[in-house]
Structure formats: structure tokens, C-alpha cells
Input
Amino acid sequence: MVNLILRLVLGSIFVAAGVTKIWPVKVTTAPFTMTVTSYAPDASEFAGSVLNYRVPPRALNNLVAITFPWIELLAGGLLMCGIWKRASTVVITVLMVVFLIVIGQAVARGLNISCGCFGTVEGRKVGLTALAEDTAMFAAALWLLWRDKEKEENPA
Amino acid sequence: MRQIVQRALIILIGGAALGLAANLVSPRRIPLITPPKQAIPETEFIPLSEAYALWSGGAGFFLDARAPADYKAGHIPNAFSLPAEEFDAYYPQVESMLNTDSAIVCYCNGVECDLSRHLAEVLKQRGFTNIRILKNAWTEWVKAGYPIAKGAQP
Output
């Protein structure tokens, strides 16, 4: 039961993170509206967020911005649906390690940049909160790796 | 175990392939390799004294590229807030006041600050031709003892 909830939560967070990076949305607070700025996949906004982290090599930043959101979406979707649970958890765990390192270095360097974690929806700055959330998600992924075995996929 | 690794690789490669394909067919595609940072020619920077002369003559438009909260805390008087990171939300408010040949000075704060450069690039793409950047503006402006304004209004 715990595993199922964790899977649904972690999976849906990854799906949301992927979708908002692929199709940037614009949110205005009062009155609350959310508009999709482009129905065509638009990696430019996320590419800007990636650049802000200033992780070399700079030349590969765009490639990361183009591919990562779709990997998030795919892995999150599979985890939610319970398809290839182990493999998608492995991918998510690896991604979480990458995110923790990248966000960690930004916090350590005191970069005043927006997180880019869910597109630029929340306009949230990278900081200890983002780091704490990612640590919690990393812990959830580790838990699933440890406890959520797919017995049916390992026939004796 | 091997099966899990294989499937994980399929997810990674499949996701990457989807991303590349989506970017390829999207009208908003971006180049696969990040274009190198363009060095800014010195002429694009405006010296502080020149900026002050422009400002006191009332001839130039000063655009504050920092976050709205920074603008509110203190800005160059008569400068408009146009946060580089929220360009689309703020641009309509200043659009009608600008001509493509208006003398525009973009500023942010700190020698490492990229916001004014980002803003200048975006404006250039929109056809503005007379844009200059005031380096480390807010710090220098305050240090020089020039007038400042506070609050959300110019």
C-alpha cells in the first residue's frame, strides 16, 4: 500500500515536472489563470534554466534541455502505471542524484537563479527548499528500489 | 538484474529519442549544441557618467532587468521594471512607450549579473537597435550618490 502511494506520488511529480518543461505554462496569480504558452514542444525556456546552473560543458546544455524532460515524463508515467517499476525507479533514482548534485552546487555557489524544476511555473528560486524536496524524492525512490520488488518479473 | 538495467537504458534512450524528435518537429526547435556565449562589444556598455547624463536629460529609457522585489526595494528613478526572467508578463506594460530606435539602457546589479544582457538580447530580437548596458548598475549608481526611487512605481 505504501509502495503504491509512493509510486503514484513520485511518478506523478515526474510527469508534472516533465510536462511543464516541455510545454511551458504561464501562471498569473489573481485571478488565477494558467495558460499554455505554446502547444508545440518548446525547450527554449528550460534551456535557459539549465544554462543558469552554469554546469559545464556549456555546449551540451541544450541537449540536456531537449532530452531530460521527456525522460522524466516517460519514467514517471511508467512508474505511475506500474509498468517496468524497477527500471523506471532506477532511472528516477539516477535523475534524482543528478538533480541533487546540480542544485547542490548552485546553492553552494550562492547562485540566485530560478529552479526550473517545474518549468518556470512557480518562479521559484533554487535554494534549500528545493534541495529538501529533492532529498525527500530521492529517499522515496530509494525506498521503492529497496521494497518494491517485482516478483512476477523474476520467475524462479 | 540485467533485465532491469536493459529496461532502464531503454527508458533513458527512448526518452532522449522522444525529446530529440519532438524538438526536431517543433516550430520552436532549439539547436542541439548550445550556441557559444557572445562576447559583448565594449560599445554596448554605457559608462556610468554617460548614463547619468542621459538619465538627467530625460532622453533615455532605463529598464530594470532585476526581479520585481529588487526593483521595489530601490531602483533608478523613472526606470521601468522589466524583469528579464518574467519578460512576457511585464513587456506589455512598457511596449507602447518604446520605439525601436529609443535609447534604451538595461541594467541589473553585480558584475556577474546576466539579466541586463539577457534583456538586451531579447529586445534586440524584437527589433530594438539602440540598447546599451550599464554594468554593475545599481551598486555603482548608489555609490555615485545619484538619486534613487523606491516602490513598485517608476
Q: What stands out?
A: Helices of chain A lie at 2-22, 44-52, 61-81, 85-108, 128-147.
